[in-house]
Design goal:
The chain has 225 residues and is an alpha/beta fold. The chain has helices at residues 10-22, 33-42, 59-69, 83-91, 104-122, 153-163, 172-179, 189-203, and strands at residues 2-6, 26-30, 47-51, 53-54, 57-58, 74-78, 96-99, 127-130, 133-136, 141-144, 147-149, 213-216, 220-223. The protein folds into 2 domains: 2-122, Response regulator (Rossmann fold), CATH 3.40.50.2300; 127-223, Winged helix-like DNA-binding domain superfamily/Winged helix DNA-binding domain (Arc Repressor Mutant, subunit A), CATH 1.10.10. It contains 8 helices and 13 strands. Helix 6 packs across helix 8. The longest helix is centred in the middle third of the chain and has 19 residues, at 104-122.
Length: 225
């Protein structure tokens, strides 16, 4: 789960960065409008946290850009809870706001609530993109550069496990849990090694130097960044 945080107070930003990473979120941190805009244009996030008062402009501008670019939830961070500021933020596309100073547990609760609401409103994610792959979960088909790939049930389930946890390191046990007993097959640690090799052979341009499913020495594997 990727979060973009734009906050110019470096003390607050550092505390939020640490706390959100402890919760398992992948955080991109920016300190101003310019860097925030570059991040928004360069990649997709699952949620944005924007401070309203920034050194080179207003967080309202980021709200507007994020809403135009992506359909993702936005929470604004404000030092002032005056109605005009809150209303303007919501009109610009924010989904919620929290007033400084705030407890980190309260912010995390707000994040989870907004993400749950978005999940219910938008429904299950039918298309997942990973590098040059496109996974259609409605018909369980996988495409590489527009060409359909033919995967076994286990290979597909393994790929889906990686895609749903893009950027996160997954241990072998976590991967085994993701594909355990699919289609009645018994899966053990040796079988996992075989299926990762088969999957790389089908997905990677150069299976000996994988860029989609990477080995993290001593920890496990990860897909993407």
């Amino acid at each position: 789960m990727k979060i973009l945080l734009v906050e110019d107070d470096k003390t607050i930003a550092a505390g939020l960065e640490y706390s959100l990473q402890q919760e398992g979120y992948l955080l991109t941190l920016c300190y101003n409008i310019a860097d925030g805009k570059k991040a928004l244009v360069g990649q997709r996030f699952d949620l944005c946290l924007f401070d309203l008062t920034l050194p080179d402009g207003s967080g309202y501008d980021l709200c507007k850009l994020a809403r135009e670019k992506w359909d993702i939830p936005i929470i604004i961070l404000t030092a002032c809870d005056e109605e005009v500021n809150v209303v303007m933020g919501l009109e610009m596309g924010a989904d919620d706001y929290i007033t400084k100073p705030f407890r980190i547990r309260e912010l995390i609760a707000r994040i989870k609530t907004v993400l749950r609401r978005y999940s219910k409103e938008t429904g299950a994610k039918n298309i997942i993109e990973l590098e040059n792959l496109r996974i259609n979960t409605l018909d369980a088909k996988v495409y590489k550069n527009g060409q359909e790939l033919y995967l076994t049930a286990l290979e597909y389930r393994l790929l889906l496990t990686f895609a749903n946890n893009e950027g996160q390191v997954l241990t072998r046990n976590q991967l085994l849990e993701g594909i355990w007993d699919i289609a009645g097959d018994f899966v053990n640690d040796n079988t996992l090694t075989v299926y990762i090799k088969r999957l790389r052979d089908k997905l990677e341009d150069d299976p000996q130097n994988p860029t989609i499913i990477k080995t993290v020495r001593g920890l496990g594997y990860k897909a993407g960044e």
